Structures are given as C-alpha cells and as structure tokens.
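[step 3/7] fold_predict: job queued, chain A
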Amino acid sequence: MSRNVLVNSGSLRFVQNISVGPHVFQGDEASGNGGKDAGLDPFELILAALGACASITVQMYADRKQSPLEGGHVVLSYTNVPAEDRSDSHTKMWMVDGIEMEFSFDGDLSEDQQLLALAGKCPIHRLLTSPVPIQTKPLVPSSVSM
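[step 4/7] structure written:
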C-alpha cells in the first residue's frame, strides 16, 4: 500500500510543501493564478501521477511478456471535452473536464494498440474514472509527523 502524503502550507501564498516518505517537493499555483509557480499545480500533479502510472503499467506488461519495448513517451493535458450524454444535449453542447493522454512507444513492436489499452487500466486511471469517496475530517495533531 502507498505511504501517507503530508501537505503543509509553505511560506509563500499558495506554495504547498509535500512529503511522501523520504521524498519532499512543492506544489503551487501558476503565477497567472496568484502563485509563484514554485512547483506543479494540482492539475499537473494529477496528470503526472496518471502518466507515470500508465507508463509503469505498460512497462511492467512489456517486461512480463519479454516485449521489445525500449521506452515510451506520454504527453498529458487537462482539457474540456464534449459531455457523453445529457438529456438536454439537443439544445446545447455541454463540456466537461477531461484528460487527453497520448502515447508513443519505442522498439520493434507489433502490439501498440494492446499497450494503449493497458495504459487505460493502470490503477490511477481506474481511480480517476470511478466514483471515489473522499472523507474529509479533522486531523489529530499527533498524526501529523510522518
């Protein structure tokens, strides 16, 4: 199972200090949104998690199948996409939040489509595309240190 993620407000307006085990980094808002661009913004953090998970999933599959996958590249972007189904969609085009994920693979491969399908089955992809209950509750002060 994954380790706890600890997020603390930084000394600058929107800067967040993020700790996960021995790893420490910052999150922030872009300068156009009032931040100092001192780290990834929350959407970029989600895209990075999804891209890393999808790429790892593809690599694990390729390793198990002894595939000639030599590497891969994933480009992700946060975008608005047309809504799939709305009862009143005949009168208006509805847009919803979406993510575009584009892959390219290096190596002498004949299974690109299968690898693309596997990328969509990574745990983060499943998490983002399913209902996820989030419980927000007060933090007990003794549980802050990790």
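[step 5/7] annotate
Helices lie at 42-64, 112-119, 123-128.
The longest strand covers residues 71-82.
exit 0
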